[in-house]
Design brief:
242 residues, DUF6441, two-stranded antiparallel ribbon, 6 helices, alpha+beta, elongated, 2 domains, 21% strand
Length: 242
């Protein structure tokens, strides 16, 4: 039996067209997979930290190289604008006080301006420096003996406004608990009876729980990429994938 074969058309044009299809497919596959990895990492953050971490989730960004044109060897980069935070929760880092200090000062919800944390001194009602300077801060030990609660004395501020709400002032430095909430007046009176408000937790170290799996997301993306590339190349070249 004799077999014969021949090339129909210009071989160079056929190969050039196939290469162009491969370049478009490679760019399409990298772009889609990079976006999927980024979205997975964002979901990891929001599912682990709920709505308070939207800013950290949106800090995940992506870039595709080359920035313009096509290539058979494109690259996708997924990165975070807060890498230290991501690294700490991926490793489950152990955080200790630095600079010879014995304790970490962790603000409580009472000490977070507008209920928001993680924004430096602008996010605190009272800073540790103000606590020290006021001379009013005092400590209450944990039952476990691992640390302390750093408190300020609490007094009632002048009642103002139409509703004449009970205002709470911590150490004469800042007002707390000003938000609208059900049962707020009873809550405020209970705080006044205790006569103090916790502003910081003082701990020698904190072991963060491992909440993120950045490496796993990247590895899953790499496993999906070959199949995505082949499917895209089939589409670009006009062939039907088997």
């Amino acid at each position: 039996m004799r077999l014969a074969a021949r090339i129909v058309g210009d071989l160079r044009q056929v190969l050039a067209a196939e290469i162009r299809a491969g370049e478009r497919a490679a760019m399409t596959a990298i772009r889609a997979e990079t976006e999927q990895v980024k979205q997975e990492l964002r979901r990891q953050v929001t599912s682990s930290f709920a709505g308070n971490a939207r800013g950290i989730a949106n800090a995940w960004r992506s870039m595709i190289f080359p920035r313009t044109g096509q290539s058979l060897r494109p690259a996708g980069l997924v990165f975070s604008k807060v890498p230290n935070v991501i690294d700490a929760f991926e490793r489950g880092a152990l955080i200790r006080a630095k600079g010879g200090r014995k304790f970490l000062a962790i603000p409580t919800g009472f000490n977070a301006a507008r209920g928001r944390r993680g924004r430096g001194e602008k996010g605190l009602r009272v800073t540790p420096a103000q606590m020290v300077a006021s001379g009013q801060g005092f400590l209450r030990p944990f039952q476990s003996g691992r640390g302390f609660v750093w408190c300020l004395p609490l007094r009632q501020g002048e009642q103002t406004g139409r509703r004449r709400r009970t205002r709470l002032v911590a150490g004469g430095l800042a007002e707390i608990g000003t938000g609208n909430r059900k049962g707020r007046e009873a809550w405020a009176r209970g705080m006044l009876q205790r006569g103090m408000v916790p502003m910081f937790l003082l701990l020698p170290q904190v072991k963060l729980a491992k909440r993120l799996d950045v490496k796993g997301a990247a590895e899953r993306g790499l496993r999906r990429l070959p199949g995505r590339f082949v499917a895209a190349w089939e589409r670009e070249s006009g062939r039907t994938a088997p």
